Amino acid sequence: MRPPPHLEISNVSKHYGEVTALEDVSLAVEQGAYVVLLGPSGSGKTTLLSVVGGFTVPSAGTVSIAGRDVTALSPAKRPTTTLFQDYALFPHMTVAGNVGFGLKVRGVAGAERERQVVAALELVGLAGYGKRGIHEISGGQRQRVGLARALVVGPEILLLDEPLGALDLNLRRQMQDELLSLQRRTGRSFVHVTHDQEEAMALASLVVVMNKGRIEDVGTPKRIYEYPMTLFTATFMGESTQIVGRVSGAASGTVEVETALGKLHGSSGLMPGTDVMLVIRPENVRTDAGETNLGSARIREATFQGAHYRVLARSEQADQEFVLRLPPDHPVEEGRLLKLSCRSAHVVVLKR
Ligand code: ADP
Ligand code: MG
Fold first, then answer.
1. Nearest-angstrom CA–CA distance, 175 and 180
2. Strand partners for 191
3. How far is the CA of 42 from the centre of ligand 2 (A)?
4. Which of the chain's termini has less CB crowding within 10 Å, N or C?
5. HEC string of 79-95?
6. Which residues, other chains included, contact 109 with Cβ-Cβ below 8 Å and sequence gap of 6+?
7. Which residue has a Cα nearest atom 11 of ligand 1?
């Protein structure tokens, strides 16, 4: 028999009066996963994290960790630690005082506590910073103190709520790398909340896309980016050209779709007559003669992104905009005519 999932959320709902923060959420997570809860503001990410951490009592449903039902346990009795959005450090304590606080509460004595604090600071790259005050370190270093404080108590599962939101882009990228290597070295499961799709891609072994208190999609970043299950997920996981259509024919996993650009093909099990949106990622729109002809389009705007140009082009045949990538050496002047195509394997057909 397979062991139970490390974290199992079963049919959890949470209502605040008329407001539904979570609606029948179920999720199973394996040990050592890096789970990212991704969704727009108000989609229920913090509420779900808080239900797992024990700070919010669900209106219905259960949470189990390592096979044990923890739904009725207080936060302190759970094998979880939560790193809140504002890190909530004690400003009057030193770095070491902050990191050692949880150990002190748990009755870990002097020398042993000090040893663990030193090890935790080393783990987050802050060796030697123990004696500093919280006001004597930078925002990014405070972030790491928060992490060290959360990790030092040895939680089975670390819960992080938008932990990098306050950092500038470079520091955010650096911290992403550090979080990932920390997670690999410790072997813990992390559950990390963000509204940033790039952050989700950079970190997650499992992305959970949330929308209006429900889970829209669960999978690897690659699967969710390439084959999103819903239009919401497709839009939230990055840019795409979106072409309106209606299924006109279907045969063994592929469909023919009637669009303003003519008949296009994609893979899907949808029935004829279904109103759909065809989704094509920018890197899959080609400017050579590909399998599926998308007609001609004129460049409306091109912005240099370093490794490529991001190009917006308008169709000559229909009221249709394309977003695509062109290599840095490609001419991209406004009004330039492009012949566009794609492979039907790259056309994702989703219900509208
Ligand atoms: P996210 O973290 O994805 O931005 P939240 O989980 O904070 O979303 O909130 C989900 C929904 O629940 C929102 O509509 C929010 O206003 C509502 N909500 C969250 N906490 C409370 C609360 N304590 N009282 C009332 N409504 C709440
Ligand atoms: Mg939140």
1. 8
2. 35, 159
3. 7
4. N
5. CEEEECCCCCCCCCCEH
6. none
7. 21
Q: How far apart are CA 147 and CA 226, in angstroms?
A: 32
How far is residue 287's CA from residue 293's CA, in Å, rounded to a whole number?
A: 10
* Alpha-carbon gap, residue 30 to 27, rounded angstroms: 10
- Closest-approaching ligand to the CA atom of 208: 1
The pLDDT tens digits of the residues spanning 64-89 come to 999 999 999 999 899 999 988 767 78
* Dist. CA 80–CA 35, nearest whole Å: 14
Q: Are 211 and 195 in contact (CB under 8 A)?
A: no
Please name the residue ranges forming H helices in the chain. 45-53, 95-105, 110-123, 139-152, 169-186, 197-203, 221-226, 231-236
> Could you list which residues have their CB under 5 Å from ion ligand 2?
46
* Residues 6 or more apart whose Cβ sits within 8 Å of residue 152: 99, 100, 102, 103, 116, 117, 119, 120
**What length does the chain have?**
352
Residue 316 three-state SS:
coil
